[in-house]
Amino acid sequence: MTGYFDAIPPLTFDPDADGPAFRHYDPDRMVMGKRLADHLRFAAAWWHSFCWEGGDPFGGRTFERPWFPADTMDLAERRVDAAFDFFRILGAPFFCFHDHDIRPEGASLAESRDRLNRVADRMGERMADGGPRLLWGTANLFSNRRYMAGAATNPDPDVFAHAAATVRDCLDVTHRLGGENYVLWGGREGYETLLNTDLGRELDQMGRFLSMVVEYKHRIGFKGTILIEPKPQEPTKHQYDFDVATVYGLLKRCGLETEVKVNIEQGHAILAGHSFEHEIALANALGIFGSIDMNRNDPQSGWDTDQFPNNVPDVTLAYYEILRGGGFTTGGTNFDAKIRRQSLDPADLVMAHAGAMDVCARGLTAAAAMLEDDRLEAARRDRYAGWDRPDARAMLDPGATLDGIADRASAAGLDPHPVSGRQEILENLVNRYV
Amino acid sequence: MTGYFDAIPPLTFDPDADGPAFRHYDPDRMVMGKRLADHLRFAAAWWHSFCWEGGDPFGGRTFERPWFPADTMDLAERRVDAAFDFFRILGAPFFCFHDHDIRPEGASLAESRDRLNRVADRMGERMADGGPRLLWGTANLFSNRRYMAGAATNPDPDVFAHAAATVRDCLDVTHRLGGENYVLWGGREGYETLLNTDLGRELDQMGRFLSMVVEYKHRIGFKGTILIEPKPQEPTKHQYDFDVATVYGLLKRCGLETEVKVNIEQGHAILAGHSFEHEIALANALGIFGSIDMNRNDPQSGWDTDQFPNNVPDVTLAYYEILRGGGFTTGGTNFDAKIRRQSLDPADLVMAHAGAMDVCARGLTAAAAMLEDDRLEAARRDRYAGWDRPDARAMLDPGATLDGIADRASAAGLDPHPVSGRQEILENLVNRYV
Amino acid sequence: MTGYFDAIPPLTFDPDADGPAFRHYDPDRMVMGKRLADHLRFAAAWWHSFCWEGGDPFGGRTFERPWFPADTMDLAERRVDAAFDFFRILGAPFFCFHDHDIRPEGASLAESRDRLNRVADRMGERMADGGPRLLWGTANLFSNRRYMAGAATNPDPDVFAHAAATVRDCLDVTHRLGGENYVLWGGREGYETLLNTDLGRELDQMGRFLSMVVEYKHRIGFKGTILIEPKPQEPTKHQYDFDVATVYGLLKRCGLETEVKVNIEQGHAILAGHSFEHEIALANALGIFGSIDMNRNDPQSGWDTDQFPNNVPDVTLAYYEILRGGGFTTGGTNFDAKIRRQSLDPADLVMAHAGAMDVCARGLTAAAAMLEDDRLEAARRDRYAGWDRPDARAMLDPGATLDGIADRASAAGLDPHPVSGRQEILENLVNRYV
Amino acid sequence: MTGYFDAIPPLTFDPDADGPAFRHYDPDRMVMGKRLADHLRFAAAWWHSFCWEGGDPFGGRTFERPWFPADTMDLAERRVDAAFDFFRILGAPFFCFHDHDIRPEGASLAESRDRLNRVADRMGERMADGGPRLLWGTANLFSNRRYMAGAATNPDPDVFAHAAATVRDCLDVTHRLGGENYVLWGGREGYETLLNTDLGRELDQMGRFLSMVVEYKHRIGFKGTILIEPKPQEPTKHQYDFDVATVYGLLKRCGLETEVKVNIEQGHAILAGHSFEHEIALANALGIFGSIDMNRNDPQSGWDTDQFPNNVPDVTLAYYEILRGGGFTTGGTNFDAKIRRQSLDPADLVMAHAGAMDVCARGLTAAAAMLEDDRLEAARRDRYAGWDRPDARAMLDPGATLDGIADRASAAGLDPHPVSGRQEILENLVNRYV
Ligand SMILES: [Co+2]
Ligand SMILES: [Co+2]
Ligand SMILES: [Co+2]
Ligand SMILES: [Co+2]
Ligand SMILES: [Co+2]
Ligand SMILES: [Co+2]
Ligand SMILES: [Co+2]
Ligand SMILES: [Co+2]
């Protein structure tokens, strides 16, 4: 016990509580034949909760944590203890981390690896001791100035090699800690200006890097999923993993579309000009849905604000697409969210997570009810029912030809009459559940 | 001669002119061993210049043209004559059209086809008579209410068939008129709400449709390029041909990445959150660059304003990427641009094109000088020079492994030091040419 | 009875209904001592529901209404009857209209006025017959091509005069029909390009016009409120009534800040880069809050989509600010919303309104509970409690000086310690009510 | 001499130079009867050039400067020397600074003031020694955590007092150093969430603060201009000095519209949804134009990128509005711009400024030619010429009435015919100068 969170008791489900509690998230509630906890698979994220100091581009640290600045192994271990205290209060089944979050970087790759393993040992003990499991690990390939021009896509091959070593070490430790996924986030795999960038070359570098990660994963027997987290921009002007559709094209380009999936973040979807549910639905349609980062952007801010979710109808639509696709397998609901820099207290950190978990519980429960009710899906099936006609299906067969269809359409004097899309009525239907 | 443009003489290159003239566009000027006209391959667009009436969502027709409303074959032919008068004044070597632009729709597919062919006959005569050539034809699959929920991606298979017949007819007439490309623009191939949409099914429909177009093109011996024009949204909330990266993924998904290329519009690039030069550079890197629509959006408007280009530095960067990729083959510079609805006079239409052609001439000439000078390219090559080292190249070979690289990096004690990206100095360099 | 809505019975409050009904909107429910209907003051809008034909920039009419195109007085009267049938089904207490919505424009100002009065007579009869009352009237000063460069801000003084005559006639008819407000919407009071615009002159013209409207209103004894509806752009690049803050400055500039208030539209707030609740809260703080248009934009579309509200938490925050400011006086909740162009059926139109009314009822009820509960307000008061100290209040007195405060601060060795802003905890609190 | 910039000689005007030089900025060139240097009044900004370490939200320091971290008075003085070396190389006539930029904060207000004065003494010596003059000083009221919830608008009155002391000290030192303006920038004068914010109270606090600053300025005999720099958001969700129109309303609200002017930044204009030239033209129309920060945002990034200007046509339109308004008086062209974090070298910093100064020189020269040529202004005058008619002018007189105008319009059978707005032709005209 570090004492930092001592004033806050472990949260339990208590819909009538006035103080700290889950008012909606009952982990053991059965929904569509599965525990709510097993549907949602919540994970807390190390970086925003235990490393971020409250800075923004116009101001520095606002938080006062006893483990800051965590630039020694002692402080880093103190942080581990605080984190596991926090996980215990929250009762979240999973957590996520970057190498950079848990150990101070060493003077060499070897020392960094050694430190990573030592902190991981301590984490492993706490995990064994009833602590949460590891949803995913990842490497921070963007904070150190060596990565200022990218990691796998750096113009300097030594940076590529350095990144390879770092990912190898992170994948090893993720494997050792029983991680269910491994995430690649391309913060600086992109460019600031086309004027100094060789786009084709950088895409090739990225493809090779990714292929080696996949090959290595199989060789060490890591059964988890490799995930890419799309983000269109920020910190760089353009990032190569712009959105789900872009990542799909990259994967097809290097033949990895069955090996790698996506970790979709609500805020990144919005930055790319999409709704969150669009990105999820598209990933499902393309067969690459993996996991989610459930943190929103402020709709009036043009950067990644990484706020906790708080809008039940929005969250419902996201889980609806997830459930339509069969739900999570190795993925889960990670809160890659940070409290506002004015939220100074331990209670702010805890209650931000608790409120978000309640919002997600309401969203998933509503989505499940909507799916079981089937009215929305029945309307969707009806809308496309014409395609069940044999002549319609035939048009999609490989042998169909443009002129064959054209001649038949002309001969038949086709004059299709549109029918209502019923958007508002369907939106009303959704509102019965949220 | 319709008389409508009578007051305006054919434009010639005259840098000192005060009245209507090209002040920069000298079609015969040799640039990088080729006529400027052959580099730029300008095309005027039928729809905005001869069909659009000046309406916007809050107001109707502002233009008074003697051929409006062109809902009879007589008026449509009068419009053909006006258009060719206009082409002659402009001296543009190409034009583009939709079926919908040139003929009133008939009561049946057959009548529509017949009318299309009759107008095309008249156009063919004018083209033979020294008129411009056809850069591309396309089908309007978005204005008629039957297409309100898409064409190839419609929930109603009869609409799919109707669209197939229409594209067949347009491809036929494009072929007959010697078109150098055929464009598919997916205005309504997308959705208004996910709630009533089967994303996977619609993507499959779209892929099949596209495959049939390609198969048909080969069968009739059309040598032109099939182009898709990406656009992220508007009129619909989401369009499947969102941007170049998305289209690449779609093409890979149905194995057409060597058959179909992209027609990139500046305004659509911006709506998708990209710079125009990004989309061109990416298309070149992915091997799918085809043609451009050189019309900009207003940076403060969130919709497709389709304005004529007027910023030489911006246009220069676009042509720089085009020239770096080898320049146009079948593609060209189409002005899918409309004059503002307050620009009522014939002179407005002519001078908007003339000014845009001058801007493009300045841009391409500057881009060519920049490329011939090679300082920018030399800086780019230098930046990646490390990758020429054998050990660096080896990391990109198929046999390289993550742990192999990692072990070598660790053993070597790699500690890469970043070097300046020199962005401002490169931007200054560009400013020497524009 | 026109028959058009015959299949749909008048809607009643029935929370358990499966068919058309209000599931949440019980007009007679008492909330904070007032009927829900009297809090919400719903109004249906004539233009989107009875005039808009389903067109968008890429396609024309999709709706088939028996009164289209309503370009004769007979069709216009048929439309009046349909509208009142619709109002009866909905049971909305108010409606709104433009002159342009209800009568075909005449060949002269006199004929237009005459037609306006004749249709108004018919409307008056239907209103007397238990129909809804008039929330506001307004003049359409943007559709006719004469207004393409603005109305009050037109470079042509004859257009200014034409607009004055039109507003006079609309204000007269609004007064006669017992309208509770009169709205000025500046669709084209702005510019397309600064290059041809005299900004200062146009702002002066607008100020004078507004002053004359206010003077006339008083002279004819119109007791309603004059409202300006801010909108930042669309159809023009820039509009002078950009947002609430801008309108406040304009009003102060011509001394009308106590005479004119604002009608705030959710979608316009968003286009201007604000949340809806911000615009309401600011209008309250500045003393110019009047009424609302409760229609949202799609968060991924950069234009005014005018959709029906469907997100209860969002709507709750808006009504919370309205109730904090004391609720509506002459204003109300107008649905300046249009069904999607694919929503073809009468039921789509009715149910879009019904769903929106339910969403608003939920929102206002939740907001009222939140306000009565007072926990949110208590937290707000606590946060500023330091300002109740005499020395703190003294700093805001007119006699306080910068150096006086500075010297005291320095002498006291002030070193203020920040306290948590508790944003997430407050957001959680809101989620208890929605 | 610190030695840091030793490799770079002072820049001179040399259009044919290949190395570091001004290729366009000839300070002594006469334009419209005034030296170019006296038109442009360039200023370098201390914070981005000498304090910013290259960090962004995803990474830390990239720059290596011998004076970093400048947290001692010795290092701070070393930084002063480096800055003046830099100013000498650039030959810029002005510079700007925050208190926070030049001195490490002390343990108390008194110590901070003392340190400020000691560094200012050293700066004064360097300024006397042929160094540049001070365009403006300002206080950093946003970096320290005490200001996390605002300065003048803080819920804690002690923060208000602390801010007052800080501004007093900065204004004193600005006065002593002969500053020509004093800027207030409201980085955190705004809110993160409305839920914990009392908007009306905060606006009142801000108004009082501003009034005291103005009163103090007069009392100490500071002849410079008090400027507010509008910015809509970032770091906070909403800032009270959103844009020029909003600041105008705030000034009118506290009666300071003749005392305070605006410092307009290109990037902030864009964040607020305006063009830069719009904000300048509006400030001129409202009589509050003061100065500019000539740094752009990237059009695809939703945050304040503060890049150096590089687009001559854009810059030309800004200077055109400045010259139309009579040019700068106490204001100038400040580069509140930062080099990219990958631009590591001293040469990057120098050449970024040099390139920007050339771009501005080209822009202002073109704008002046355009204004002297008068064709654009003649077209503008013509467009409004109708308002010179006596009957037109009479409509704007205070005695004019809505019904008086309406009756005359109706009697005269007014039917105004629109004339072309000629936007494209005017844009072509601009392109003759850039
Ligand atoms: Co994020
Ligand atoms: Co994330
Ligand atoms: Co377009
Ligand atoms: Co186009
Ligand atoms: Co609207
Ligand atoms: Co409205
Ligand atoms: Co800025
Ligand atoms: Co600035």
UniProtKB/TrEMBL annotation, chains A, B, C, D:
Q: Name one GO molecular function term.
A: magnesium ion binding
Enzymatic reactions? alpha-D-xylose = alpha-D-xylulofuranose
PROSITE patterns the UniProt entry points to:
XYLOSE_ISOMERASE
Keyword Transport (UniProt): no
Q: Which InterPro entries match?
A: Xyl_isomerase-like_sf, Xylose_isom_bac, Xylose_isomerase
Give the UniProt subcellular location, in the record's own words: Cytoplasm
Q: Where is the active site?
A: 98, 101
What Enzyme Commission number(s) apply to this enzyme?
5.3.1.5
Which biological process, per GO, is one annotated for this protein? Answer: D-xylose metabolic process
Q: Where does Mg(2+) 1 bind?
A: 229, 265, 293, 336
- Which keywords belong to this entry? Carbohydrate metabolism, Cytoplasm, Isomerase, Magnesium, Metal-binding, Xylose metabolism
What is the enzyme's class at the highest EC level? isomerase
What is its cofactor? Mg(2+)
User: Which Gene Ontology cellular component terms are annotated?
Assistant: cytoplasm
Return the Gene3D superfamilies for the record.
Answer: Divalent-metal-dependent TIM barrel enzymes
| UniProt keyword Cytoplasm, yes or no | yes
Note describing how the cofactor binds: Binds 2 magnesium ions per subunit.
Give me the residues that bind Mg(2+) 2, please: 265, 268, 304, 306
Coiled-coil ranges from the UniProt annotation: none
Quaternary structure and interacting proteins, as annotated: Homotetramer.
**The family this protein is said to belong to:** Belongs to the xylose isomerase family.
Task: Tell me what this protein is called.
Answer: Xylose isomerase
What's the encoding gene here? Answer: xylA
